[in-house]
Amino acid sequence: MDRYYRTAGSTRLSQQAAATEAYQGMMGASLNAEGAVHTVTVALAQNFSEMRFILSGMVSGDYAAVQARTGRDAQTLRNVCDANRQR
C-alpha cells in the first residue's frame, strides 16, 4: 500500500499503473505465502485488480470504497505478519 500511494500520482493513468504494479507484486507474493498471509495477499491482489479495472473504465465501481478496503486488508496483512514474527 505504501508503495502504491508513493507511485500513484494524481492522474487516473498513473493510479492505474500503480494499481497494476501493486496487483502484480501481490500476486507474486501470494505464490510464496501460506495460510493467512496467502489469503490476505490474494485479497489485496484482487483489490488492486478491481482498482485498475475501475480506473480503466472496464467496470463501474466505487474506487474510494475499494481503496478503503485495500487499506484495511493491508493493515490485516501487517497484523498477520506481526503475529507470525512473534511466534
What's the arrangement of secondary structure elements?
Blueprint: H1 2-8, H2 12-31, H3 35-56, H4 63-85
Helix pairs in contact: 1-2, 2-3, 3-4
Would you kindly provide a written description of the structure presented here, covering whatever features stand out?
- This protein is an all-alpha fold and 87 residues long.
- The chain has one domain (12-86).
- Helices cover 83% and strands 0% of the residues.
- It has 4 helices and no strands.
- 26% of the residues are buried.
Task: Put the structure in a nutshell.
The chain has helices spanning 2-8, 12-31, 35-56, 63-85. The protein has 87 residues and is mainly α. It starts with a helix and ends with a helix.
Any key phrases for this structure?
elongated; mainly alpha; 83% helix; single chain; 4 helices; 87 residues
